[in-house]
Specification:
Blueprint: E1 4-10, H1 14-25, E2 30-34, E3 48-50, H2 54-64, H3 68-74, E4 76-82, E5 92-97, H4 99-112, E6 116-120, E7 123-129, E8 132-138, E9 143-151, E10 160-163, E11 166-169, H5 181-187, E12 192-199, E13 202-204, E14 214-216, E15 240-244, H6 247-255, H7 278-284, E16 292-297, E17 304-308, H8 316-323, E18 334-336, E19 339-346, E20 363-365, H9 375-393, H10 407-418, H11 442-453, H12 458-480, E21 482-483, H13 485-494, E22 504-505, H14 506-510, H15 517-520, H16 525-532, H17 538-569, H18 587-596, H19 601-605, H20 612-621
Parallel strand pairs: 1-2, 1-9, 2-6, 9-20
Antiparallel strand pairs: 3-5, 4-5, 7-8, 8-9, 10-11, 10-19, 12-19, 13-17, 13-18, 14-15, 15-16, 16-17, 21-22
Helix pairs in contact: 1-9, 2-9, 2-11, 6-8, 11-12, 12-17
Length: 624
């Protein structure tokens, strides 16, 4: 074993794996420390990746040269593109994964990275020299030194689990919590808080009556996560199932409220508003007689199922008795009950956009330690922290993504600028420029950046170049091709679009909302021949052309707005002001600006409590 590394990553969850792989692939010598080598990238909650806005994040990680998309594609047992009925800015890929295969595949890829070493153990102390971190100490009193340290501790920092009135320390069921780091950082002046998340029962699939449930099959098309065409799942594709709670279920659940840590004051930490427990739903939506439940397979060859929508910290017998009142679950057996878990997090406004802490140089935080929830948000932070830890350890420029460049940029800017008052989850509504940040064009936005960093390999850049060339060639052909009424009127009528009265350019037909480019190909021989010249990724390129035609006006308008925003973001104000001495801005603005110390005027404008008039004052003081 080496005792000196460029980067040490603490924790091998989704953030830690991306951080270690990124830094290692860029050339850093990395040590990945985890408490259990058999649970690398464990899917602690539901066995799925992606979803609304989260799917875009996974595609962005892949486009940069990360691994979330590759691992997901290889372990997929069901894939769906959500929001297909809406515009492409809202399309979000989601995959059900084989939980055990997912973890094993992540470990396989990590072990192929010769720059990554492993150590199984618990980090109990950080080692400092002045205001810089220089290494870590484990529970075996072994010290490892490094230029940078990335903390990705997930829910393990002083983790405490609740099932009814029973409490058990741990970061995950049957796994110990991580101690001492929170206390050490608290003593250094870091603001530490507590958050809560939860998970539902795991169900024995042999005891479910599927015949009365609503089957939910996956999509059968070309969509997936990774832009690498050779990456595909080889696993058997499975269905999910929908069920519903009822008044009898609710009545039994309510009998456990007096023993619920959610309601008796035991749990006072911040919980996720957008993924509430079943008992919280009964209070918040008291007028509803039923709630959706989604029965999701945990793997290709296991009888274990995850019951999405039934997260709970009620006593285990109440959870089971209530579930047996749901149609299809009358004879159900469970492997383990749901539970709530509390854990420490650090106010993310204490971070730079690189995810380096402001108080301690060379120390980076990524994942749930920053107050986020979700594998995708964690992985996004992990790859950015890993990139910047590598850059810092080799004295290279920092890497930051803007809000107009990636959902990853929106995520990190929200964290470091606004902070969190609940576990942060990404939504499309958080992005001002979501038409620019679609799931289909993440490679165009980010692969050149990943390649310049040395993270994305040349084959990715070559794939992108080929895709753009073939897309533009097909687009030019469509813009020039004239179409006669007799060629397409039968198709137009069939999809509810007005028939042509005279010949028009094909591009004008494709611009109609009812028309699908993939469908009209069979009606036009010249178009069919042109499409036949596309050698690979044909469906993806057709999709890209159609989006470009239908949404070009929206894309152009949003690009103009983003460019205006960049002007504010290019005005650097870091270390330019003593905010407490500026009496012409509001008291709240003085306090917020002094605490966060924004790097640019654009960041300052997004701080809650800083008004446009406060920004105008800063502009005047800058002489602008």
């Amino acid at each position: 074993m080496n005792n000196q590394y460029d980067v040490i990553v603490v924790g091998a969850g989704h953030a830690g794996c991306e951080a270690a792989m990124a830094a290692g692939n860029m050339g850093s010598k990395v040590l990945l420390i985890t408490m259990d080598m058999n649970k690398i990238a464990q899917m602690s909650c539901n066995p799925a990746m992606g979803g609304i806005a989260k799917g875009q994040i996974v595609r962005e990680i892949d486009a940069l040269g990360g691994y979330a998309g590759i691992i997901t594609d290889e372990s997929t047992i069901q894939f769906r593109m959500l929001n297909r009925s809406k515009g492409p800015a809202m399309w979000s890929p989601r995959a059900q994964c084989d939980r055990m295969y997912f973890s094993a595949t992540w470990r396989k890829y990590l072990e192929k990275n010769n720059n990554v070493d492993f150590w199984q153990g618990m980090v109990i102390h950080l080692i400092f020299e002045g205001d810089k971190v220089v290494g870590v100490k484990t529970d075996l009193n072994i010290e490892f030194k490094s230029k940078c340290v990335v903390l990705t501790n997930g829910t393990f920092l002083n983790g405490l689990m609740h099932i009814g009135q029973h409490q058990q320390s741990g970061g995950r069921i049957a796994e110990p919590e991580s101690k001492h780091i929170s206390e050490q950082l608290l003593n250094l002046g870091f603001a530490v808080g507590r958050m809560k998340t939860g998970t539902p029962v795991r169900v024995d699939g042999r005891t479910v009556n599927y015949s009365v449930l609503t089957e939910q099959k996956g999509d059968n098309d070309f969509y997936k996560f990774s832009y690498l065409p050779e990456i595909r799942t080889k696993l058997k594709q499975l269905s999910c199932y929908m069920a519903y709670t009822n008044l009898s279920t609710h009545k039994i659940l309510k009998t456990g409220f007096e023993s619920s840590p959610m309601f008796d004051g035991t749990i006072q930490s911040l919980g996720p508003r957008y993924c509430p427990s079943i008992e919280t739903k009964l209070i918040t939506f008291a007028d509803k007689d039923e709630h959706h439940l989604f029965l999701e397979p945990e793997g290709e060859d296991t009888i274990e199922y995850y019951l999405n929508g039934y997260s709970s910290s009620l006593p285990w017998d109440v959870q089971l008795d209530a579930l047996r009142k749901v149609e299809g679950f009358e004879e159900v057996k469970i492997f383990r009950p749901g539970y709530a878990i509390e854990y420490d997090f650090f106010d993310p406004t204490q971070l730079h956009h690189t995810l380096e802490t402001k108080k301690i140089e060379n120390l980076y935080f990524a994942g749930q330690i920053n107050g986020t929830t979700g594998y995708e948000e964690a992985g996004a932070q992990g790859i950015i922290a890993g990139i910047n830890a590598h850059q810092k350890s080799h004295k290279l420029d920092e890497f930051v993504l803007g809000r107009d460049e990636a959902y990853i940029g929106v995520l990190i800017d929200d964290l470091v600028t606004k902070g969190v008052d609940e576990p942060y989850r990404m939504f499309t509504s958080r992005a001002e420029y979501r038409i620019l940040l679609r799931q289909d064009d993440a490679d165009q936005r980010l692969t050149p950046k990943g390649f310049d960093l040395g993270l994305a390999k040349k084959n990715r850049l070559d794939l992108l170049t080929s895709k753009i060339e073939q897309r533009d060639s097909l687009l030019k052909f469509i813009q020039k091709l004239s179409v006669k009424p007799e060629q397409v009127n039968n198709y137009l009528t069939s999809v509810g679009s007005a028939p042509l009265k005279q010949g028009v350019k094909l591009v004008d037909i494709i611009a109609r909302p009812q028309v699908k480019l993939i469908d009209i190909i069979d009606y036009l021989d010249e178009l069919k021949h042109q499409v036949g010249l596309i050698l690979n990724r044909r469906e993806e390129i057709i999709d890209s052309v159609e989006i470009k035609i239908k949404y070009s006006g929206y894309i152009e308008r949003e690009s103009l707005m983003a460019n205006k925003f960049k002007r504010l973001n290019n005005i650097v104000i870091e270390n330019k002001f003593d905010y407490q001495s500026i009496q012409t801005i509001s008291t709240e603005a003085r306090h917020k600006l002094a605490a966060i110390q924004p790097k640019t005027l654009g960041q300052a404008s997004r701080i809650p409590g800083v008004s446009p008039s406060d920004i105008s004052v800063l502009l005047v003081l800058m002489g602008r």
